[in-house]
Write a structure and sequence with these properties.
With 361 residues, the chain is α/β, with parallel strands linked by helices. It contains twelve helices and eleven strands. Helices cover 49% and strands 14% of the residues. Helix 2 links the parallel strand 1 and strand 2. The protein starts with a helix and ends with a helix.
Length: 361
């Protein structure tokens, strides 16, 4: 459903719902209940956990003055409807990854993930210290929203395939689930790209509706059960080296909060960033070992495929440059990426290579 038709269909109901939500009962004894919708199915490892962490921490930190009720994908609105629902005032906030909503504005890619783009640390550098936050506010305010970085999975895997990928030509006609600009890259290589919510991926893969999928990484993928369907797993991916998840509020709702409560929401989102990143990193290695022990074949794309990914990614990322705000975000993002990457390569990159050599890792 596109944004305009959604708003036409829901404005009256949304206004009534918003009015009801802001009526006296919601403010009884200075307390409010806020509804949090998500792009995640209930129980999806790591991502749903992060949304629940945000809800629980805001509720606890405000001593219940703000009680956040989480509604997983499909419980109030669908996974791909949360952006419009919060923008229209049908829900107060959502947790999700915003490359699902590039139809709203292509610049949302910079606040979710760009192929061959930023890692978690590089994104934090840009957002908090090199102009990203101001651009985020400028973009999301167009839709009456206020977004906060509130989760990261770390580098995501290349995905699960029904057959091995030995050349770029192997993507021709391949039915593959990958959202965002990463999916657009595969489209340029001839794949038939599917954009499915996480809760629908297992069924699509097991039924043969898709030939492969990316999801997150070893831990979340194992929990999803993809190893039950195929044993071909590419551990390195180009598409999401550090995908940013957002906690996004209706801007009017956020501005109606007290300064203290605004700060609590802001700081909880920041805490969720490191909490979620460490959650995935703490679980991925052991999960990968279990997958391998269970017969999963760990693969790496050949250089010819990586080169094809890179060439197509350059085209995809530069195509929306005719949009003024997109171009503005692009210039800022790329300048920060180049600066951070150069230093990280000379510092952490050198250290990691030498540590792993010396310690035999």
């Amino acid at each position: 459903m596109d944004r305009r038709s959604f708003l036409r269909a829901t404005t009256a109901g949304g206004a009534a719902a918003a009015a009801t939500a802001l009526a006296a009962p919601a403010y009884a004894q200075g307390k409010r209940t806020l509804t949090l919708v998500t792009t995640w199915g209930r129980g999806l490892a790591g991502v749903h956990d992060t949304a629940q962490y945000c809800a629980d921490q805001i509720t606890a930190a405000t001593d219940g003055a703000l009680t956040v009720e989480l509604k997983a994908a499909g419980e109030l609105v669908g996974a791909f409807e949360v952006f419009d629902a919060v923008s229209a005032g049908q829900a107060d906030m959502y947790h999700g990854v915003d490359y699902y909503f590039l139809g709203q504005h292509p610049a949302l890619s910079f606040f979710s993930q760009v192929p061959f783009g930023m890692t978690f640390m590089e994104y934090a550098n840009w957002y908090y210290h090199e102009g990203g936050e101001a651009l985020c506010d400028e973009l999301y305010s167009i839709f009456g929203l206020k977004a906060f970085p509130s989760g990261n999975t770390g580098p995501q895997s290349g995905g699960w395939f029904a057959k091995e990928i030995n050349s770029p030509e192997d993507f021709q006609g391949l039915k593959f689930r990958m959202p965002g600009q990463g999916g657009q890259v595969l489209g340029k290589l001839g794949a038939s790209v599917q954009n499915l919510p996480g809760s629908e991926v297992y069924q699509a893969l097991s039924s043969g509706a898709i030939d492969g999928t990316e999801w997150i990484g070893p831990w979340a993928d194992e929990k999803a059960g993809f190893q039950e369907i195929t044993k071909i797993y590419y551990t390195g991916g180009f598409h999401e080296p550090g995908p940013n998840l957002n906690l996004t509020m209706n801007l009017e709702i956020f501005e109606s909060l007290s300064p203290m409560h605004q700060q609590i929401v802001t700081q909880v989102a920041r805490a969720a960033n490191i909490w979620s990143m460490s959650l995935f990193m703490a679980n991925n290695s052991a999960a990968l070992q279990r997958l391998q022990a269970g017969g999963v074949k760990l693969m790496e794309f050949p250089d010819s495929v990586w080169d094809a990914f890179g060439a197509a990614a350059k085209e995809v990322v530069e195509e929306p440059m005719g949009d003024e705000l997109y171009a503005k975000c692009y210039e800022s993002y790329m300048a920060s990426l180049q600066s951070s990457a150069q230093w990280i390569a000379k510092s952490e990159g050198t250290f990691s290579a030498q540590r792993n050599r010396v310690m035999g890792i």
